[in-house]
């Protein structure tokens, strides 16, 4: 089972690489700002130690969060020196790169590894250093406004509720102007697991990370291993060569940086992102214009996703608002029927009644229709 879990990302990434056609190297503007690590002080380490939740699981080193918190004033000076040495030398300790995986059964055949969700536990000490680095990196990104405004995931004071409110406002505003809005919801398959380290480091360089910081992140990402534990049995360690570290503090932030330039490939459509959940939408006065613009940007988005080693989950979904042929100003609803053909990676989309996107499923119900990919259906139909 550990062989399966440790190779999920690399297996999928290799399949995606086979689909990519060679293209000229893109030139990306480099940030005029630069990021260097700041020296860690003992007060910061004490603060992080005091926040530790003693109920958290213990990593392979056997050092519990309770032990660390109870001995905070004794160990803080030593941890401060270790953390600063790590940041100065551009090296993340190998002993902190070992993950312990616990498989959680989902459903289906219990003998199939595919029906288990791997939960990775890392050492608490490693996550202490990660939290300190996370604070510094996130503050830098916020200060210089380097994260895409379309991204609502893993960011302070942003949420799915705010993303939905923004999307709803756009929909209603376009209804007032008698426009049709089409939207495609894209779910990326194991996106966190297929992050390519070389591409990620290049993106970190683009946003201003200095060579010493890049060395540290290169060390942080490399030489990682994991074991799978079932009852009292532990597997042999296996290397994990792609993806952001599961169960880590920095993983989600690194993913935001990795996917940050995705909206830049769009020419016509607007987008909303919640981590790896992507919503692409466009408003037009005619069905033909809607179809043309959505398909144009879907092609660009598909190319960009493949270049970043992303693959969409099937089925893919599209959300579409009623065409204002029989517009009711009070109810803001309409009745109509039409055919439109949308394609993503050459697969057509069709209409269904529900949307299961993590970010939007609980709030968008009967007022809009959803379109789901089906290789046997060449159009989507709203009726």
Return the average pLDDT rounded to an integer: 82
Question: Overall 3D geometry?
Answer: globular
- What is the helix content? 25-40%
Kindly report the spatial arrangement of strands forming the biggest sheet: 7-8-3-9-13-12-11
Low-confidence stretches: 319-339, 352-383
Structural description of this entry:
The protein is of the alpha+beta class. The chain has one domain. 36% of the residues lie in helices and 18% in strands. The chain contains ten helices and 14 strands. It has helices spanning 2-17, 42-50, 65-70, 72-89, 124-143, 160-176, 197-206, 211-221, 250-259, 287-307; strands at residues 98-105, 116-121, 180-187, 224-230, 233-234, 238-240, 270-274, 277-284, 317-320, 338-340, 343-344, 347-352, 369-373, 380-382. The strands form three sheets. A seven-stranded antiparallel sheet has the order 7-8-3-9-13-12-11, with helices on both faces. Strands 1, 2, 4, 5 and 6 form a five-stranded mixed sheet that branches. α2 (42-50) crosses α4. The chain is globular, with a radius of gyration of 23 Å. Residues 319-339 and 352-383 have low confidence and may be disordered.
For this entry, give a set of tags.
383 residues, alpha+beta, 7-stranded antiparallel beta sheet, 5-stranded mixed beta sheet, 10 helices, 14 strands
SSE topology:
Layout: H1 2-17, H2 42-50, H3 65-70, H4 72-89, E1 98-105, E2 116-121, H5 124-143, H6 160-176, E3 180-187, H7 197-206, H8 211-221, E4 224-230, E5 233-234, E6 238-240, H9 250-259, E7 270-274, E8 277-284, H10 287-307, E9 317-320, E10 338-340, E11 343-344, E12 347-352, E13 369-373, E14 380-382
Pfam families: RVT_1
InterPro entries: DNA/RNA_pol_sf, RT_dom
